């Protein structure tokens, strides 16, 4: 599981095993860790992708962690649906969003003071049955570096929404204005803009796992394979080009309908009969009609890169 956090890891005290739910609710409550373990649980296989995944491929270059394809992982998360907790406390008609505070905090460049890592969800997404307060990952307690003891899991949204080291949930009657909501994780179209579009759903995307970029292979049949995923709907097709996008072929797609938030595995049998240098490309399509573009939508923070995946291969 890749790791990404804005501040240093925090000491986990006994307080971290209690989760208050407050704000625009009828009955504020504090849920103990053992309370959550005793409630009906949900187990979900979920892809978590950093919004900055593949950032290093943007041109012109942008500042930030220069991820290539490594800021994405899939795992099995177990926890309690957030809606179960909110059903217990009740939600007032004035509720608009739900804010999630993490225990991690620190200073920010060009901003005075200390800041908690905090994010919000619109009420509709917070009440989705698959938005969960997780306490287990791959059948074991969540590893400390991934949010132990409690972490929010928001399927199909970029992973900045899945707040780690969860310490408090607050239902609010307005739009949250924290810096990790209104400064970071916003698609700014240019350096002069002070407003943009919030980063939410993962964009349809794919990676090529084999062959490797700038690798050498012999003539013959090769199984090109990789992964595809989307934050809106399901992946419905993967297409492969072995000539730099001049023509495309449908790949074999292995999806798991019982795990709608996982990635799909695709493969294509490539008959490499002639020597030379080949540009191999992959693109995924989803059920909402989205397809990977030839060029990613550039933005100043370098979020949401999803241009067609490309590797260069020499056949010898």
From TrEMBL:
Annotated Oxidoreductase molybdopterin-binding domain residues: 10-179
Required co-factors: Mo-molybdopterin
GO biological process: sulfur compound metabolic process
Moybdenum cofactor oxidoreductase dimerisation domain ranges (all copies): 200-314
Record-linked InterPro entries: Ig_E-set, MoCF_OxRdtse_dimer, Mopterin_OxRdtase_euk, OxRdtase_Mopterin-bd_dom, OxRdtase_Mopterin-bd_sf
GO molecular function: heme binding; molybdenum ion binding; molybdopterin cofactor binding; sulfite oxidase activity
Keyword terms of this UniProt record: Metal-binding, Molybdenum, Oxidoreductase
CDD domains: SO_family_Moco_dimer
Keyword Glycoprotein in annotation: no
Name the UniProt record assigns to this protein: Sulfite oxidase
Organism: Paenibacillus xerothermodurans
